[in-house]
Amino acid sequence: MRNVLITGASRGIGAETARQFAKNGDRVFINYHHSHEAAVRLAEELTDRGLTAAIIKADVSKSSDVGKMFAEIEEQTGGIDVLVNNAGIAQTKLFTDITDEDWDRMVATNLSSTFYCCRAALPYMIRQQFGRIINISSMWGQIGGSCEVHYSAAKAGIIGLTKALAMEEGLSGITVNCIAPGVIRTDMTSHLSDEDFKALASETPTGSIGTPEDVARAAVFLADDSSSFITGQVLGVNGGFVVS
């Protein structure tokens, strides 16, 4: 049984990723920061189905919290075999309105958290000569999004981190890949109206909006042994909205 940590896993893409990995027979650690009740409900949902899941609180934008989280996991199980860096926030603002606080919070939550968690996970992965790291970016990290400059920059940073780390860790049996979701119907896009979704679907070659399941299944694939020769890649789960 592999140990899988999913950050920001109490809802949306993270919660569905936890479901898919647990269904796959993995032991899932559901990381959350604020959404305690949602994390508990998800863990209970999984354990009630005979699956293995536990919740673990940490603000992954803080290095100290990440260190404590990994120490707790290592005490219980030895370490993490699969890391899914999913925690993130979004914000829509004109570039000239972005404050220092907005920028710092965006970079810390989306990019620094990925760095901290990768750094904490790697010693165990290197020792066992196996690991799977899957970082969740965004299509806006590939092409840039108007009124989302700080979000796009942080998500682009995740792509750069993924590619560089994959080159560094390949000989240790560790793959590092990135998923760049397109428009996915989650809490993060709940501010969009039905008309907005219709317009976005019409711009998407598949004519549809993505679901958390679409992203979660891609994460499970990238963690599977069948994808062991895939590393340093950006998998666009976007219905063809962005073709690279």
Descriptive overview:
- By secondary structure, the chain is an alpha/beta fold.
- The chain has a single domain, classed as NAD(P)-binding Rossmann-like Domain (Rossmann fold).
- 48% of the residues lie in helices and 15% in strands.
- It is built from eight helices and seven strands, in the order βαβαβαβαβααβααβ.
- The protein has a seven-stranded parallel β-sheet, sandwiched between helices.
- Strand 4, helix 4 and strand 5 form a beta-alpha-beta unit.
- Helix 3 packs parallel to helix 4.
- The longest helix has 29 residues.
- It starts with a strand and ends in a 7-residue tail after the last strand.
- The mean pLDDT is 94.
Strand order of the largest sheet: 3-2-1-4-5-6-7
Percentage of residues in DSSP E strands:
15-25%
The total tally of domains equals 1
Helix content: 40-55%
CATH architecture group name:
3-Layer(aba) Sandwich
CATH superfamily: NAD(P)-binding Rossmann-like Domain
What is the alpha-carbon Rg in Å? 17 Å
CATH class: Alpha Beta
Low-pLDDT sequence parts: none
General form: globular
Order of helices and strands: EHEHEHEHEHHEHHE
Q: Report, as a whole number of angstroms, the end-to-end distance.
A: 35 Å
Task: Please identify the structural class as seen in this structure.
Answer: alpha/beta
According to CATH, what is the topology? Answer: Rossmann fold
